[in-house]
């Protein structure tokens, strides 16, 4: 479990963020990476700024007769939005370089049949001109492209951070075909937002809306440069809000079914009022191209990042200092919740904001500042618009009742002390109802693992094995109660009716696993 940021969300299925690879700048600018061994990755894909290429050939399609609309149904007319705001959408071209390892080169005319061990290799090498010394590297230029949009008449532009990552030169092309060299004022990889500036005046700008007002099912429109095809317009609906992806970000993404592809990165997402409510950023794909799932950064989040970059030149993120998990029905039964909602705290960072406020492992955060937390991803989404030093109030489910806990958020860049644990105790025995064979940690195991309290799981069978508990795991608590002996485990399990929540230490990760025993 990666826990560098404010919150780590653990799910049953890990998703891998696949950025562009071929000809990429910073690993994100170029063609999208695809596994060619007949097994493509199913993952959220950052919409990589793609290298300019020839336009793909169009295939004529006969859609047939249009289906009649039901009485009173009116489809949105996007033509006015495009004509009014299209001029403020820009194409971004980037140039960078990558280091290429060089040994003695064959050079032009070097016979391919000779390798370095061949006695004729040195003879031919002397006639090839200057050579790079063995072990040195040379800069190889790489190129890419993306989209962006103008937010002020004096040339301030928003785009994605991965579009301009590691770029040495950024060129902005306007809708009227004028081109300007752009300066990167700042970028934030955590939210994938970057701010550019070009030296121009009286430029067209896009109106900015409020992403919080967006509703699921609402029509939206995207303008960008997919595959280098500038000023391309696509439309769809909002599929969901507050999506959390496994990309180490805390962005509450807007999910849509708008067709976006490499080159759309950094382009605007409009509502039917013609207001920008998001920045197109990622897609979910098994092929590297659009498959019906697109994700945009809410403009409310992007503007908070923009304001920090413009004002201070850097970005600070708030940090609560907890690891959380989804609350499923098994956990709801274990903790006696009326519904499987909230964010289950699986670990509290020692010395962090949550620790200082009194938050504990096994707490379930149900509300933040009065706003309900339904899915665990709602918590980092809500915290993403907070600043270090902000005070938050949490409704926490603990020991069968709601407890109010107030915390002052820390800075995500601050370092905290390592976690410390209580001394261990207990004896060896077996918990048959769970299907676990348990024993105390021996002194050597405590020293090597850094775990001072808990029970080693020597074998897992039955309900525990089916739930995912593995031999070698260390059992730390049951239903939020720390356990140091098998008698304590029996006591807690004996009082449970349907299921129990086991807090497991597995390697460097702490995770809750629900085990149904009823």
Automatic annotation (TrEMBL):
Q: Where in the cell is it found?
A: Periplasm
**What keywords does the record list, in alphabetical order?**
Hydrolase, Periplasm, Protease, Repeat, Serine protease, Signal, Stress response
Q: What is its main location?
A: periplasm
Q: Which InterPro entries does UniProt cross-reference here?
A: PDZ, PDZ_6, PDZ_sf, Pept_S1C_Do, Peptidase_S1_PA, Peptidase_S1C
EC number(s) reported in the record? 3.4.21.107
Q: Which Pfam families does this UniProt record tie to the protein?
A: PDZ_2, PDZ_6, Trypsin_2
Start and end residues of each PDZ domain: 309-400, 415-508
Alphabetical list of CDD domains matching this protein: cpPDZ1_DegP-like
Q: Which reaction equations make up its catalytic activity?
A: Acts on substrates that are at least partially unfolded. The cleavage site P1 residue is normally between a pair of hydrophobic residues, such as Val-|-Val
- Family the entry assigns: Belongs to the peptidase S1C family.
Record protein name field:
Probable periplasmic serine endoprotease DegP-like
Q: Which organism is it from?
A: Massilia aquatica
């Amino acid at each position: 479990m990666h826990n560098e940021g404010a919150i780590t969300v653990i799910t049953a299925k890990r998703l891998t963020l696949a950025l562009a690879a071929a000809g990429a700048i910073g690993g994100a600018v170029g063609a999208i990476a695809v596994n060619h061994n007949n097994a493509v990755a199913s993952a959220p894909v950052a919409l990589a700024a793609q290298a300019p290429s020839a336009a793909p050939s169009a295939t004529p399609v006969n859609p047939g007769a249009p289906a009649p609309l039901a009485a009173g149904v009116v489809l949105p007319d996007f033509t006015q939005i495009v004509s009014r705001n299209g001029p403020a959408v820009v194409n971004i071209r980037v140039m960078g370089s990558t280091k290429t390892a060089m040994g003695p080169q064959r050079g032009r005319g070097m016979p391919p049949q000779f390798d370095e061990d061949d006695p004729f290799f040195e003879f031919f090498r002397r006639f090839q001109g200057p050579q790079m010394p063995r072990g040195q590297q040379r800069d190889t230029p790489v190129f890419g492209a993306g989209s962006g949009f103008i937010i002020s008449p004096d040339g301030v532009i928003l785009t994605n951070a991965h579009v301009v990552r590691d770029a040495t030169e950024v060129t902005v092309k306007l809708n009227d075909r004028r081109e300007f060299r752009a300066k990167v004022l700042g970028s934030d990889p955590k939210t994938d937002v970057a701010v550019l500036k070009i030296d121009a005046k009286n430029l067209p700008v896009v109106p900015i809306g409020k992403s919080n007002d967006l509703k699921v099912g609402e029509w939206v429109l995207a303008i960008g440069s997919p595959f280098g095809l500038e000023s391309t317009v696509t439309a769809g609906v909002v599929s969901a809000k507050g999506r959390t992806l496994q990309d180490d970000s805390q962005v509450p993404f807007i999910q849509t079914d708008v067709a976006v592809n490499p080159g759309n990165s950094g382009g605007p997402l409009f509502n039917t009022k013609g207001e920008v409510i998001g920045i197109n950023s990622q897609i979910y794909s098994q092929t590297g191209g659009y498959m019906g799932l697109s994700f945009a950064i809410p403009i409310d989040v992007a503007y908070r990042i923009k304001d920090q970059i413009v004002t201070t030149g850097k970005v600070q993120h708030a940090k609560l200092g907890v690891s959380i998990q989804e609350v499923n029905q098994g956990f709801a039964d274990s903790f006696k919740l009326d519904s499987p909602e909230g964010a289950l705290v699986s670990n509290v960072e020692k010395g962090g904001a949550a620790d200082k406020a009194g938050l504990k492992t096994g707490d379930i955060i149900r509300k933040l500042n009065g706003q309900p937390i339904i899915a665990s991803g709602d918590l980092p989404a809500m915290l993403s618009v907070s600043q270090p030093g902000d005070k938050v109030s949490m409704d926490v489910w603990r020991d069968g009742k709601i407890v109010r806990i107030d915390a002052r958020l820390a800075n995500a860049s601050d370092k905290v002390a390592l976690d410390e644990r209580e001394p261990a105790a207990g004896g060896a025995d077996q918990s048959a109802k769970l299907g676990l064979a348990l024993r105390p940690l021996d002194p050597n195991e405590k020293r090597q693992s850094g775990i001072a309290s808990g029970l080693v799981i020597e074998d897992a069978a039955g309900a525990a094995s089916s739930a995912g508990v593995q031999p070698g795991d260390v059992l730390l608590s049951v239903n939020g109660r720390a356990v140091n002996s098998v008698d304590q485990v029996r006591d807690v399990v004996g009082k449970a009716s349907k299921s129990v929540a086991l807090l497991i230490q597995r390697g460097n990760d702490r995770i809750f696993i629900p085990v149904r025993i009823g």
